[in-house]
Write a structure and sequence with these properties.
369 residues, alpha/beta, 7-stranded mixed β-sheet
């Protein structure tokens, strides 16, 4: 692309996909501004650990010139899965890590920090909540902010996640509840404070599953283990149970009843966490999620193809960001670039959505396996 002037590009959302896109654009000398509603990079915890796939997440990091730095932070040994019997905690299966280190783990916060550190300080504008976008007749797009301000751009990229404020400019689709809720718990200094749990989990991840419920635990960095209590239940399951989500003791008691008959070493996850329970209802967008091309606006990551968290989302978001950036620096116009990007991303995400739905059914089976 050799425009008469540098196109004005706005990315809404400072997540992994948006930051990857911004990094590659900046590498090629393009100006780009990322707008993020959070006050700063440390406004909230960034979640657990991610496995970076060679053909998606790592490919995007390579395009961003960050693969070597990623490898210094990643944990190849974390690419290990242990499957345990829910009633006895006996080891049923074990796989990984792969000999070539093809899917090393990294804490999401460390990966986001790596991307942020690679950008000039003025790239991300913190505490800038976007409330919506308006495509304009000339093919540009107007970005609307929570404080009433507005700015026009040649391209607005919605990288703002499940509840995207940009998506309505392209699609009427809304996320729907999958029927599965994760209840998250955390354990610190596991090798010394929770050695039996550390042994069960091993170097990577542990899974035990029964009918309609599962326990997943994953090693993070610095001796931390993050666990997910997965339930097939109505979104308001706690209402039917007569408990308040803020009542940690009541939640714990209820969960222990739900996992009655499970081995005590696994029920330890429910009764001994160092952190309070965090509830995460899982939502997805329709699959396939597509839209008619609109000049001046597009989507990437969860804003475009929200899927269950079974190892694809972050990788695809970063690949989306890399592919969009590549198109923007190689195609003859912004509109041509967006069309080229969407022609690749939309069919890819449709295939991944099917795979991730199957992955969720495997992770939390409806009936006993």
């Amino acid at each position: 692309m050799n425009p008469a002037r540098d196109p004005r590009i706005a990315i809404v959302g400072a997540g992994l996909g948006g930051l990857t896109c911004a990094r590659i654009l900046r590498q090629h000398g393009r100006s780009v501004t990322v707008f993020e509603r959070e006050a700063d990079a440390d406004a909230r915890p960034q979640g657990g650990t991610l496995d970076m796939h060679a053909d998606t997440g790592q490919a995007a990091l390579d395009a961003a010139g960050l693969l070597d730095r990623f490898r210094t932070l990643a944990r190849p040994e974390g690419d290990e899965w242990r499957v345990l019997d829910f009633a006895t905690a006996a080891l049923l299966a074990q796989q990984g890590p792969s000999p070539d280190g093809g899917r090393p783990e990294i804490d999401r916060g460390h990966l986001r920090g790596l991307l942020l550190d690679s950008l000039a300080e003025d790239t991300v504008r913190w505490d800038r909540a976007v409330t919506g976008v308006t495509p304009l007749p000339d093919g540009t797009c107007r970005l609307l902010f929570g404080d009433g301000a507005a700015e026009d751009f040649d391209l607005v990229v919605g990288a703002d996640g499940a509840w995207s404020r940009v998506r309505p400019a392209l699609s009427h689709a809304a996320p729907r509840y999958t029927g599965v809720t994760f209840v998250e718990a955390g354990f610190d200094h596991c090798d010394t404070r929770h050695p039996d749990l550390a042994r069960l989990v091993g170097n990577g991840s542990m899974l035990a599953k029964g009918a309609g419920r599962s326990l997943v635990a994953q090693r993070n960095s610095n001796g931390h283990i993050r666990a997910y209590i997965a339930l097939r239940a109505p979104e308001n399951w706690h209402v039917a149970a007569g408990i308040e989500l803020g009542d940690q003791r009541a939640v714990r008691t209820h969960l222990l009843r739900m996992f009655d008959g499970w081995d005590e070493s696994l029920r330890y996850i429910l009764s001994n966490s160092d952190s309070g329970f965090v509830h995460r209802s899982l939502f997805v967008l329709p699959a396939p999620h597509t839209w008619e091309h609109v000049s001046g606006v597009t989507l990437l990551g969860d804003a475009a193809h929200l899927m269950p968290p079974v190892g694809l989302g972050a990788n695809l978001a970063m690949l989306d960001g890399a592919d969009l950036a590549h198109a923007l620096v190689t195609e003859s116009s912004v509109d041509d670039a967006v069309r080229a990007y969407e022609s690749i991303m939309l069919p890819r995400s449709a295939e991944a959505a099917t795979s991730s739905a199957q992955g969720l059914d495997h992770l939390v089976p409806v009936t006993a396996t």
